[in-house]
Amino acid sequence: MIQVADLQIDRERYLVTVHGQPVQLTFMEFNALWVIVEHAGRVVSYDALAQSLWGKPVPHARRRLAVIISRIRSKLGEAADVIDTVTRVGYRLAPRLAA
Question: Whole-prediction pTM value?
Answer without folding.
Answer: 0.92
